[in-house]
């Protein structure tokens, strides 16, 4: 009985540890509702390269504790966007005008 309880507790700890924040590291590509292609390459140090048809800039990023809001910082100005991870290979970002972009991990 004690071994079963201990095994269940150990399994619970493993499951909870796996439910941490999403791993954004890597390159994500998508197209917004206006047809503008966007690529974001997230690095593990909190920086990213954001590129579309008009620009390419280095930004900083952070994900809040609830993993539902992504803060993108460019030249000291923060932009907060809604964040939803649909799967390990798909995320959706939503700005404050309810415009969305779905990004797929490459």
Whole-angstrom Rg:
17 Å
What percent of the residues sit in helical stretches (DSSP H or I)? 10-25%
Whole-number mean pLDDT = 85
| Overall geometry | globular
Largest sheet: 8 strands, antiparallel, barrel
Count of beta strands: 8
Strand order of the largest sheet: 1-2-3-4-5-6-7-8
As residue ranges, the low-confidence spans are: 4-18
Secondary-structure element pattern, one letter each: HEEEEEEEE
Distance between the termini: 47 Å
How is this structure best summarized?
The chain is α+β, with helices and mostly antiparallel strands.
Characterise this structure.
The chain has 106 residues and is of the alpha+beta class. 16% of the residues lie in helices and 52% in strands. It has one helix and eight strands, in the order αββββββββ. An eight-stranded antiparallel barrel has the order 1-2-3-4-5-6-7-8. Strand 1 (26-32) and strand 2 form a beta hairpin. The relative contact order is 0.17.
Describe the secondary structure blueprint for this structure.
Elements: H1 2-18, E1 26-32, E2 37-42, E3 47-52, E4 56-63, E5 69-74, E6 77-87, E7 90-94, E8 100-105
Antiparallel strand pairs: 1-2, 1-8, 2-3, 3-4, 4-5, 5-6, 6-7, 7-8
């Amino acid at each position: 009985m004690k071994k079963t309880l201990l095994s269940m507790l150990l399994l619970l700890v493993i499951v909870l540890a796996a439910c941490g924040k999403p791993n954004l590291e890597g390159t994500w590509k998508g197209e917004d509702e206006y047809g503008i292609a966007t690529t974001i390459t997230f690095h593990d140090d909190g920086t990213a390269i954001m590129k579309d048809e008009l620009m390419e800039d280095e930004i900083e990023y952070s994900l809040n504790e609830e993993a539902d809001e992504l803060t993108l910082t460019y030249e000291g100005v923060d932009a907060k966007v809604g964040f939803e991870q649909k799967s390990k290979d798909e995320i959706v970002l939503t700005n404050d005008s309810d415009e969305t972009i779905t990004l797929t991990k490459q």
